[in-house]
Amino acid sequence: SEVGTTTETTTEITAETTTEITAETITNREENKKPETPVSLPDKGEILEDNRQSDIYTVVDTKKKEVCFETLTDLGETTVTIPDTVMINGEIYKVTQISNNAFKNNKNVTKIKIGKNIKYIGKNAFKGCKKVKIIIIRSSELNARTVSGSAFKGIKKGTVIKVPKNKVSAY
Length: 171
Hints:
4-stranded parallel β-sheet
């Protein structure tokens, strides 16, 4: 009669050493490619901070990778740029919206640059920004339905607003 021997192996796995293995990882290894690190996408509505500028954004659409600009982290800035895209957790997202009250009653902003991917500007977004002298809008996606009527209410009289040439009559 044969006697069977059982060997037990124990491996300690910690969060620091674990890597998720997926079908993609196996395929990459088979093709001698470096496997990609899995990235977890944020949930819709999740509030995130941009890796480069430290401004605050909310996820609008995870599949299209779109975010809404919420607010500045440095409220003392005088020149504000709403970028075309932001990098969050190593992923590039289009900035497509400016939230309601994003800069409401900001006492420091004198110049605003709005990126080319902006499709919506919320209620009171720039309301009461009395020191603003110039607004540069690079987006061609805006119209009367996508810009709140109160978005620029109470800005300084004589503020210069620059828009794309093909949108002068529409804006």
